[in-house]
């Protein structure tokens, strides 16, 4: 069982932005969802775990080894799928994987070939192995991204916003692949898509302005909110009134009307109906907490 311990890490960029403020997390095998809005500090945390940048203070221990002191250790154990690969070259999937495998230090030609073919099979790209990656669709590129991240049998895989830009079928296929991988290693999924975390992750953290707001099992968070979420359809113009009067956690436009969710431990009356909470309610009620204490 792999074990990643993040202990009280902080980072202030030279422009004064406090991107991480005392983040602590314990992560084991399985899929871990890191949920937060743009700018919350997710990529900073991912890059720090990947050994690509160092925190100002704090420690990260992977399987007993301090990886801030030994960044090479985590680099050897890690697969990283960044948000954007940038330019895709005009060479075949097979040859690009071979090139990346050499960079990862897989020296034996036969081992390289065996691993690459197995990964192309796993990511459903085997029949496209001789096609240039710059002709791949968005979904194929993401699956190629996973194939390259899996080179060298990493024990920890980091994927940053992987399903952005994928159509529903591609997203589904990609998510299935991730959850299959997550059975044997640590997979950290950084995203702002609540639904992906709900469908895939056994553990999650909500991060806001460089601080972990909450950490635990999605199901436990949902249970905690049972009997506390109420919904109502209102006119758009009425929103300021409800915002003032209640703990409004979200509002969604619905055929020209607003469907609002509020947090209340007791029945708010006023034609609100009780609603079973979902992970979106968890996320938005956590953000509400940050506003109240801001
Ligand atoms: P997320 O991945 O959740 O969108 P980031 O980690 O990219 O968040 O960014 C967190 C905060 O740090 C943001 O305010 C962002 O503008 C800032 N930031 C990120 N990278 C840098 C950098 N290299 N220099 C200065 N500020 C940065």
Explain this structure to me?
- The protein is of the alpha/beta class and 294 residues long.
- The chain is built from 10 helices and 14 strands.
- It has helices spanning 42-49, 71-77, 93-103, 109-122, 138-149, 168-181, 194-200, 218-224, 239-245, 279-293; strands at residues 3-12, 18-28, 30-35, 57-62, 65-66, 78-81, 156-160, 186-191, 203-208, 211-216, 229-234, 247-254, 257-263, 273-274.
- The strands form 3 sheets. The chain has a 6-stranded mixed sheet, sandwiched between helices. A 4-stranded antiparallel sheet has the order 2-1-4-5, with helices on one face.
- Helix 3 (93-103) crosses helix 4 (109-122) and helix 5 packs parallel to helix 6.
- It starts with a strand and ends with a helix.
- The mean pLDDT is 92.
- The protein binds adenosine-5'-diphosphate.
- Residues 13, 15, 17, 19, 36, 38-44 line the site of adenosine-5'-diphosphate.
What keyword list fits this structure?
294 residues, alpha/beta, Rossmann fold, six-stranded mixed sheet, four-stranded antiparallel sheet, 10 helices, binds adenosine-5'-diphosphate
CATH superfamily of the largest domain: P-loop containing nucleotide triphosphate hydrolases
Please list the strands of the largest sheet in the order they lie side by side. 6-7-8-3-9-10
Helical amount: 25-40%
| CATH fold-type name of the largest domain | Rossmann fold
Number of strands: 14
């Amino acid at each position: 069982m792999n074990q990643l311990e993040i202990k009280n890490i902080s980072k202030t960029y030279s422009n004064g932005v406090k991107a991480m403020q005392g983040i602590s997390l314990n992560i084991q095998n399985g899929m871990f969802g890191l949920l937060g809005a743009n700018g919350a500090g997710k990529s900073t945390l991912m890059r720090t775990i990947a050994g690509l940048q160092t925190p100002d203070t704090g420690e990260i221990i992977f399987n007993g080894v301090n990886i801030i002191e030994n960044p090479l250790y985590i680099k050897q154990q890690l697969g990283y799928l960044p948000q954007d690969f940038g330019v895709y070259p005009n060479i075949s999937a097979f040859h690009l994987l071979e090139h990346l495998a050499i960079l990862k230090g897989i020296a034996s030609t036969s081992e390289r070939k065996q691993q690459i073919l197995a990964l192309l099979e796993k990511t459903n790209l085997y029949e496209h192995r001789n096609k240039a990656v710059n002709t791949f669709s968005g979904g194929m590129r993401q699956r190629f991204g996973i194939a390259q991240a899996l080179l060298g049998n990493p024990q920890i895989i980091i994927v940053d916003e992987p399903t952005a830009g994928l159509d529903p079928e591609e997203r589904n296929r990609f998510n299935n692949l991730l959850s299959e991988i997550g059975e044997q290693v640590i997979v950290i999924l950084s995203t702002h898509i609540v639904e992906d975390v709900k469908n895939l992750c056994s553990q999650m953290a909500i991060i806001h302005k460089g601080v972990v707001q909450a950490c635990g099992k999605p199901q436990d968070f949902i249970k905690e909110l049972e009997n506390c979420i109420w919904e109502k359809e209102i006119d758009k113009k009425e929103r300021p009134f409800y915002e003032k009067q209640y703990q409004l956690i979200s509002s969604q436009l619905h055929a020209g009307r607003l469907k609002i969710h509020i947090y209340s431990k007791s029945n708010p009356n006023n034609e609100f109906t009780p609603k079973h909470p979902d992970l979106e309610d968890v996320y938005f009620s956590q953000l509400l907490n940050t506003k109240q204490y801001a």
